[in-house]
Amino acid sequence: MREPGGIKRSIQGLYFFLFILLSLIFALLAYYIPFGISFKLALSKYDAISPPEFVGLKNFKKILQDKIFWISLKNSFLYTLYVVPASLVLSFLIAVGLNQNSKFIRTLRVFYFVPTVTSSVAINFVWLWFFNPEYGLLNTVLGLLSLKKIYWLTDPRIALFSLALVGIWGSLSYNIILFLAGLQNIPITYYEAAELDGATKKDILLNITIPLMTPIIFFILIMQIISTVQMFESVFTMTRGGPGYSTYTIVYYIYRNGFNWFRMGYGTALSWILYFILLILTIIQFRFQRRWVYYE
Fold first, then answer.
1. Could you tell me if 183 and 250 are in contact, meaning their C-beta atoms sit under 8 angstroms apart?
2. What is the Cα–Cα distance from 142 to 119, expressed in whole angstroms?
3. Dihedral, CA atoms, 106, 109, 114, 117, nearest 10 degrees?
4. What is the DSSP letter of 158?
5. What angle do CA 66, 68, 74 make, to 5 degrees?
6. Which long-range contacts link 281-284 to residues 24+ away (Cβ below 8 Å)?
7. What is the pLDDT of residues 169-223, one digit of tens each?
8. Measured between alpha carbons, how far is 210 from 214 in angstroms, rounded to an integer?
9. Residues 262 and 32 sit within 8 Å (Cβ to Cβ)
10. pTM for this predicted structure
């Protein structure tokens, strides 16, 4: 006769098996099957109406000769280059300033968190008003300063940079929250010991705060690069890729191919190219993080 303890362990093992099985089924339905279908579509000519027609690597060969793809890829990387460093530096400095235990600072933190819980489409429409060349807030301020108006979204030379301003502002709040969490987890004894040794605030920042924050910086860097390379909402709601192709990004070009021009197979092939680009960038970051990320 089986002992009660053995029966209990068997029931726990059964529960464990069921939970793992449910997770595998969910992963199969939500990730692996769509993953396989998308790869099959990337090797096909498909217009969402007729049955897919297998064309092998033809879509990928066409991508290499596609001028709009290279323009979109260049714009995506330029946008990332504008947004990521500025967002990291600004959000870190603001978080350091907000890392104080006063009532005013605690209230101020709420305002910095607002963009995270606000619809990105609504935010973009507000920025559209800011950028309006005739009655927008930015040009109104420039007019008060007797400066020339700027055509923020209709000048191909600065349209992408204008979108980057929106991206920097929109990413600050999330980064600030993460940086604040990291700053508040640094033991205060480190700071007390440094002050007793006569360290200045600059020394404390460079030799204690930043090294101990490198794991958070590394995490934010990865997430920020992935999200900015995939930027879509601002282009869709504010410029529609214009003027010309000056604000086309890789994700917007995927959308145009799939849902405007009904080249689903080609759009899926572009998605796979984007997937491998992000995979390579992430692997490179993980390889180099050993040189500058310090774990306690």
1. no
2. 28
3. -80
4. T
5. 110
6. 281/225, 281/226, 281/229, 282/222, 282/226
7. 989 988 998 999 999 899 889 988 988 888 888 898 889 999 999 999 999 999 9
8. 6
9. no
10. 0.88
